[in-house]
Specification:
By secondary structure, this protein is mainly α. It has 3 helices and no strands. Helix 1 packs across helix 2 and helix 2 runs antiparallel to helix 3. It is rod-shaped and about 60 Å long. It starts with a helix and ends with a helix.
Amino acid sequence: MLRILVLFEAFSFFTFLSSLQVIPGIIYGFYIAFTVHQGFPTFASMVIISGIFTFFMGILCDQITELRKEKFEE
């Protein structure tokens, strides 16, 4: 099921995963920064960067999917 989802809706799948990483990372980072006053935590930065990489992986998978679809349409 996951393979079919990634094959046909790769961009929306990876965008969803990316948002599951970026949004909590931002919330956690600003919560710690404003309540504890120790600056933006490294862990939150790593989670946000991981979410950005996941988003770009979705763009890459979407492009590969489009190339494969063109190959089968011919």
